[in-house]
Design a protein that fits this description.
Its cofactor is Zn(2+). InterPro entries: A_deaminase_dom (IPR001365), Ado/ade_deaminase (IPR006330), Metal_Hydrolase (IPR032466). Keywords: Hydrolase, Metal-binding, Zinc. The protein has helices spanning 33-40, 50-61, 66-70, 73-78, 83-99, 121-138, 158-167, 196-204, 219-227, 260-267, 276-281, 293-298, 317-328, 332-345, 350-368; strands spanning 20-26, 102-109, 144-152, 178-184, 209-213, 233-236, 244-248, 254-258, 271-274, 303-305. The protein has one domain: Alpha-Beta Barrel (TIM Barrel), CATH 3.20.20. The model has no long low-confidence stretch (mean pLDDT 95). The chain is an alpha/beta fold. Helix content is 43%, strand content 15%.
């Protein structure tokens, strides 16, 4: 269970008061355990009370394997097959993020995974949109949201999914509709090149794309995300560190050499949607202090802080900031830079990104007193 002290930095700052922009958060990875129980309508679950069920998700996700981590989604997807369920989950996601100080979020999900009980792609998107709008309206303008529609890389529905995303694309930051597309699912063995046609379609229609890459597979996957997936951001992307050579010199100085892909990602400022706690669960590192986040930050990569799946990682955006700060000694200035990176990379018009940056600046100024 999370306690209040976990939200505080070493200087006492409550990270929930800091304005945040969240680029990588899965709708189906953020359900409240009690909601799963309610929506299951008595169907068998791994645990029968909310606290025990939440612990089951966290324990099951701590496998060190992306593939095993993804198996926990079978439970949540089983209760997200109706319009009412999708609407409730979407509304509650906004409530939870608003309570954590998020001012803009891009929630990603795969409509093709919610069609077992008769929903269509369009019907599923309409239900989620309705729930997101309800949550934003109740928050009275504190938080805005956009949707990222995921193509599942192990399936063959990519073009149809992108076409559906285009039918529901956003016209305004206030409409809670689709702002981009994504490629998700088991990374190894399912390269972005397998869905080149779908992402070319998105590009022709000027819909931005982010692609999961560099989490469950290496540098070649990242290269394919850029070349075949037309990625403007990289979902996780942390294994770009595999393309960085660090050498200790005799005089004590350290030299760093970046490979071709790492150079491209850094120099073109392709944003890394890093989800530190989730990355530990899927085997990127054993301890936060060994996570490549700080290496990438110090080398000038455009890093952002994300949650991936709040349920499975027992986390929130505010907790991720504390965990990183405890590991690497980050100051409020560092945390503000991560938030600014996210605002600049959001799939929004420039004027909306500028507004987010101004809200971040004001919020961090208030935190400094």
């Amino acid at each position: 269970m999370i306690n209040e002290t976990e939200f505080r930095l070493a200087d006492g700052t409550d990270t929930r008061t800091l304005p945040k922009v969240l680029l990588h958060d899965h709708l189906d990875g953020g359900l409240r355990p009690q909601t799963i129980i309610d929506l299951a309508n008595g169907a068998e679950l791994p645990a029968s009370d909310a606290e025990a069920l939440g612990q089951w998700f966290e324990d099951s996700a701590n496998s060190g394997s992306l593939e095993q981590y993804l198996e926990t989604f079978a439970v949540v997807l089983s209760v997200m097959q109706t319009a009412d369920a999708l609407r409730r989950v979407a509304r509650e996601a906004i409530e939870d993020l608003d309570a954590d100080g998020v001012i803009y979020a891009e929630l990603r999900w795969a409509p093709e995974q919610h069609l077992r009980d008769g929903l269509t792609l369009d019907g599923a998107i309409e239900a989620v949109t309705a729930g997101l709008r309800e949550g934003c309206e109740a928050a009275d303008g504190r938080i805005r949201v956009g949707q990222l529609i995921c193509v599942m890389r192990q399936n063959d529905n990519a073009v149809a999914v992108v076409e559906a995303a285009l039918r529901h694309r956003s016209a305004s930051i206030t409409d809670a509709r689709v702002v981009g597309v994504d490629l998700a699912g088991p990374e190894a063995g399912f390269p972005p090149s397998g869905h080149r046609e779908a992402f070319a379609l998105a590009a022709r229609e000027f819909m931005p794309a982010t692609v999961h890459a560099g989490e469950g597979d290496g540098v070649d996957s990242i290269a394919s995300a850029i070349l075949d997936g037309r990625a403007l951001r990289l979902g996780h992307g942390v294994r770009i560190a595999d393309d960085i050579e660090i050498a200790e010199q005799v005089d004590g100085h350290t030299t760093v050499a970046l490979g071709r892909v790492a150079n491209w990602v850094r120099d073109r400022e392709l944003t890394l949607e890093v989800s530190p706690s989730s990355n530990l669960q899927t085997g990127i590192a054993e301890d936060m202090r060994d996570h490549p986040f700080d290496l990438l930050y110090q080398l000038g990569f455009d890093v952002t802080v994300n949650t991936d799946n709040r349920l499975m990682s027992a986390t929130t955006p505010s907790l991720e900031l504390v965990r990183l700060s405890d590991a690497f000694g980050y100051s409020l200035d560092d945390l503000e830079e991560f938030a600014m990176n996210a605002a600049a990379a959001a799939f929004l018009p420039q004027e909306d990104r500028t507004d987010l940056a101004e809200r971040i600046e004001a919020g961090f100024q208030d935190a400094r007193g």
